[in-house]
Specification:
Strand content: 5-15%
Radius of gyration: 31 Å
Number of strands: 21
Structural class: alpha+beta
Low-confidence stretches: 56-62, 485-493, 808-818
Length: about 800
């Protein structure tokens, strides 16, 4: 523990602070071995739950697991209560300041705020001037970054007023760490977080405009590649909001609507996680593809609540901290309770002149967000470096802020099998209660420094802590859900499915089924290669052609027929090549990617399995170089894919989203079985048992055949089982029957002609099932049947895309499978 820093754990030289003594008494065993076990358990749970924080500069890809320390940050009630009161006051001041900046601008007229600090800020939005948002609330949410100085005083060092992030991570931290120390969590009366999120729900529900009934609330996300997308999906699922991207919404007559599979549904409130600039290309950033054209006008007209209001990023400028005490006195008539870190805006000549002699004790920060730079600690520079910075400050003073350097408090962190002391900052979240006040999350997101001990940043490898605020009285149990439901609530309880969500669920079904079919195909070939009896030379040609049709072989080499080692090598290399759009590795990655876009609709168990699929093929290639290792990897992939399918079948609600997912699976399965049979029948060797065994293996129907017939495979029985048997869930007839049933139930479908073709195809399967030999013994008729089934599947996919999934702003999905 360095000197001149507040120690969160110890008081004096070695004495535990009283609240940490209480934690130690109730936490159970805290040996090094036990803490290491808990640390591993935390890492495993975060990995399995897919809790991620995206870092764009990472060489191995942007997604990495969220970092969470085993030990919580413990704060006693006596410390927390005055801090919470002061932060509520600060939130009220900032909301009133936003109203003044976009209203009468009295503070500017009275010289309490420099005009250049407001009008020069890129976050000051002139299209929003004169707009009074619903109930006068600009800040429905706000967060403050706090640092504790050497004397134990908390200082506000930053404000998050536009779209504060981190509340969802704080909730996940709580769910994880509270399970590590359940006795301590209960016995120390730790404040719950659910009431904070319930307050957020109530504020949006109570303030949203529109007719009577439950308003429709959407959470607007930039999309899966945003650094905190996990949190967006997590909060949408937890709060019961619809997760949307900009392309999911449209504005008609100054009202906002969600594009759903059944048409346009009104949206009454938007909890946005999208920065101002990107929200509306008509009035803000014209090149934004993330926003909703006309959204600002709909908000300005009062037809939709937007939380937070547009233009609030101007309140995030660190330069405001220096003016806030006087602003608080003017707006609220009282002193600012929680102090800001000493701050000087260099745009004021007197301020720069006053602080320049003490430059070595300062930190330089940008006054406005359009100046990309990290904080510069002047104490780390030599005289030459400080002189250079002094010149920059004098040349462009309005662009910079100087703040006093505050040594951050240190908290205990379990790292590398031992206890370390790391710098800590605390982000505290507040939500408007709809009555002019704010509710404080009891705790927040504690963040600890990584290898760079001067900067607390997730982008720089920092970690986080759960924050326990203790109560002096027992905590009443609380549920996020409101009181008893009524019949009207049940009638309105359907969940809308956006067009984008329907499309992604459709492709989740296709990619998952395509991956499973490809894995079974690879296993059926690779497992037979060493056995000449199971895979004789004269039967290899149709199998090789089938592999090429499925994209499992990227070369068309005649040498494959007589060179099983070459065939084996190319199949293994091909399946691991994520650059090839039909490889197993690519399809598994796409399954996980598409699942991520509808993460708010997947259960935790389903996502854990998908997350394992995502990392299955990321191991170094040399670990899967041999045949045995490749088969083991394929087996693992099949097991996980079967688990994904089972969870979808047994756990997903049968809404329209599930229907599109199911249709996607059936289309892909129909294409796979008909393509494989077409290659075998075209070879003229359909009577060869080895080739028929291979077909049964591909379709996971070997046990069914052996149970029924107890003899070696014969074409009549195999063809009937894989093409015409409606009881076999892998047969073509089964897929056609299911597609008829599902497509008929699609909302507002203008697909009568296609439904008729599907119905006719299914009826033909029933008609020829009893006289299967008439079809299976005539190559020409069978070829036409197979070609017609494949054409039906592809035409259905195209028709659904045109009818439901027309998103011109999205990249085209990879559709070629055969």
């Amino acid at each position: 523990m360095p000197k001149d820093h507040f120690d969160e754990l110890l008081e004096g030289e070695r004495a535990l602070r009283s609240h940490w003594q209480s934690f130690a008494r109730h936490a159970g065993e805290l040996s090094a071995a036990e803490l290491s076990r808990k640390h591993a358990r935390v890492a495993r749970q975060l990995y399995e739950n897919g809790v991620t924080y995206n870092v764009y500069a990472e060489a191995e890809g942007p997604t990495r697991p969220w970092a969470l320390d085993t030990l919580p940050l413990v704060l006693p009630a006596a410390q927390w209560e005055p801090l919470a009161r002061g932060l509520r006051q600060r939130a009220q001041v900032l909301n009133a300041l936003g109203a003044d900046i976009y209203g009468e601008q009295r503070l500017i007229a009275e010289a309490l705020m420099p005009p250049a600090l407001v009008f020069g800020h890129p976050g000051f939005l002139r299209p929003c001037h004169g707009v009074r948002p619903i109930n006068g609330v600009f800040l429905h949410q706000v967060a403050f970054d706090l640092a504790r100085g050497p004397n134990g005083q908390w200082w506000v060092v930053g404000t998050r007023a536009q779209a504060p992030s981190g509340a969802g991570y704080a909730l996940e931290n709580r769910l994880t760490v509270s399970r590590l120390f359940p006795d301590a969590f209960r016995d120390l009366h730790v404040h719950m977080l659910a009431q904070f999120f319930r307050a957020l729900q109530e504020t949006l529900l109570g303030s949203a405009p529109g007719p009577g009934g439950a308003p429709h609330i959407a959470l607007l996300t930039p999309g899966p590649y945003n650094e905190t997308y996990f949190e967006h999906a997590y909060l949408a699922r937890y709060l019961g909001f619809t997760l949307v991207e900009g392309g999911d919404l449209t504005v008609r007559d100054d009202h906002v609507y969600l594009k759903t599979l059944t048409g346009l549904e009104p949206v009454h409130a938007i909890l946005r996680r999208l920065d101002d600039d990107f929200c509306d290309p008509l009035e803000l950033r014209a090149d934004s593809t993330l926003g909703v054209p006309g959204l600002v006008q709909a908000w300005r007209a009062g037809h939709v609540l937007v939380a937070n209001a547009f233009g609030t990023s101007v309140l995030e400028s660190p330069a405001l901290l220096g003016f806030l005490p006087a602003v608080c006195e003017r707006l609220l008539g009282e002193a600012l309770a929680v102090p800001s870190i000493a701050t000087w805006w260099c745009g004021e000549a007197a301020a720069l002149e006053n602080v320049e002699p003490r430059l070595a004790d300062m930190v330089v920060k940008p006054a406005f967000p359009d100046l990309p730079m990290e904080p510069v600690f002047m104490g780390d520079l030599d005289a030459t470096g400080r002189a250079e910075w002094a010149g920059r400050l004098r040349a462009s003073p309005e662009r910079y802020v100087l703040q006093s350097y505050v040594p951050l408090s240190h908290a205990p962190v379990w790292h590398g099998g031992q206890l370390e002391s790391r710098p800590l900052m605390l982000r505290v979240f507040l939500v408007a209660d709809g009555r002019g006040d704010y509710r404080v999350m009891p705790g927040g997101l504690a963040r600890i420094a990584g290898s760079d001990r001067r900067a607390v940043s997730g982008q720089r490898g920092g970690s986080s802590k759960d924050t326990w605020v203790l109560s002096e009285a027992p905590i009443e149990p609380f549920s996020l859900l409101p009181g008893r439901l009524t019949s009207d609530d049940i009638a309105r309880s359907h969940r809308v499915v956006s067009s984008r969500a329907g499309e992604n669920l459709f492709w989740l079904g296709r990619y998952a089924e395509r991956s499973e079919n490809g894995a079974r195909f690879l296993r059926a070939v690779l497992a037979r290669l060493p056995d000449r009896d199971a895979f004789p030379v004269d039967l290899r040609r149709p199998v090789i052609r089938a592999c090429q049709r499925h994209g499992l072989l990227m070369a068309a080499r005649e040498a494959y027929v007589g060179a099983p080692r070459l065939l084996e090598r190319d199949l293994i290399d091909g399946m691991l090549d994520r650059r090839h759009h039909q490889s197993l590795a690519f399809n598994l990655a796409e399954t996980a990617r598409v699942a991520g876009t509808v993460r708010d609709r997947l259960s935790a168990d389903n996502w854990r399995v998908v997350n394992q699929l995502l990392t299955l093929f990321t191991r170094p290639r040399q670990q899967t170089a041999g045949l045995a290792e490749a088969l083991e990897l394929i087996d693992r992939a099949i097991v996980l894919l079967v688990a994904v399918g089972g969870l979808e079948t047994e756990h997903m609600t049968r809404d329209q989203g599930w229907r599109f997912l199911s249709i996607g699976r059936h289309i892909e399965r129909l294409l796979s079985v008909t393509t494989a049979i077409a290659e075998v029948t075209a070879s003229g060797r359909v009577e060869r048992p080895a080739l028929l065994e291979w077909l049964l293996d591909l379709s996971d129907s070997t046990i069914t055949y052996r149970t029924r017939y107890m003899r070696q495979p014969e074409w009549l029985a195999v063809g009937h089982l894989l093409l015409l048997d409606r009881r076999n869930p892998r047969s073509a007839a089964f897929q056609l029957a299911r597609l008829v049933r599902q497509v008929r139930l699609l909302p507002g479908a203008d697909l009568a002609e296609l439904v008729g073709e599907l119905t006719e195809g299914s009826a033909r399967c029933r008609a020829v099932e009893r006289s299967a030999g008439d079809l299976l013994a005539r190559p020409g008729a069978l070829e036409r049947f197979l070609r017609h089934a494949q054409g039906l599947a592809l035409r259905l996919s195209d028709a659904l895309t045109l009818r439901y999934f027309s998103h011109v702003y999205e990249p085209t999905q990879a559709t070629s499978v055969i």
